[in-house]
Specification:
Length: 215
């Protein structure tokens, strides 16, 4: 399996950038729960280390839950990496649509980890589109979470954070199975949604027809 590499980040530091910010989101296609964005920031100090415990790190969808948890634990303990989380709940998603909600959360997450000192900064974005209204240079990378180490780090932290949120919602809104499918449109989720009707964290604007379901 080809692992995400640090080549791009190292080239960017050599090109004069002093700070790299990488951003990724999770929960775009879910029927329930928020879209969660993680932004990670690092200087070249982070990349001068070997990071032996992060050697097999790859994007979150290619990892088992316990592997994601271990990598997230290592990343959050790394003093040369800063991170922030931003999210948009289902009401905001219904109001402005899922794409705009994710972009809104991205801008907030990036703003939270801007360096205190003036460093030339570049933002690495997973996907084909740059983020509007960001003052820094940007590079959008298709399948960036599979190719770029920094984006893979963001994807893991975002996924672990959102999964914990959804397990909490499973206790608050039992019966839907949020602790198993995390809000995605599995057959079980759709069957329970039909049987129970939507709860407050379901996205009314998504493809299932809620009009005949009593709230």
């Amino acid at each position: 399996m080809k692992l995400p590499h640090k080549t791009l980040e190292q080239k960017l530091f050599k090109a004069g950038y002093g700070y790299i910010c990488a951003v990724d989101e999770v929960g775009m296609g879910c029927l329930a729960g928020p879209v969660v964005v993680c932004s990670v920031g690092m200087t070249n100090h982070f990349y001068t280390k070997a990071h032996k415990k992060l050697h097999w790190l790859r994007e979150s969808k290619l990892l088992l839950p316990h592997q994601r948890d271990e990598f997230a634990k290592e990343l959050l303990a790394e003093k040369d990496l800063v991170y922030s989380i931003a999210l948009c709940d289902s009401k905001k998603i219904d109001e402005i649509n899922i794409y705009q909600a994710a972009r809104y959360a991205m801008r907030r997450a990036i703003k939270k980890i801007q360096p205190n000192i003036e460093l030339k900064t570049i933002v690495l974005v997973d996907g084909k589109n740059k983020i509007k209204d960001i003052k820094h240079d940007q590079q959008a990378i298709i399948k960036g979470d599979r190719k770029i180490f920094a984006i893979a780090c963001a994807s893991i932290i975002a996924k672990v954070y959102r999964d914990k949120l959804m397990k909490g919602y499973a206790k608050k809104y039992p019966g839907y199975g949020f602790e198993k499918h995390m809000g995605y449109a599995t057959k079980h989720h759709q069957a329970q949604l039909t049987a129970l009707g939507p709860c407050p964290i379901h996205r009314r604007s998504f493809r299932l027809d809620y009009s005949s379901i009593k709230t």
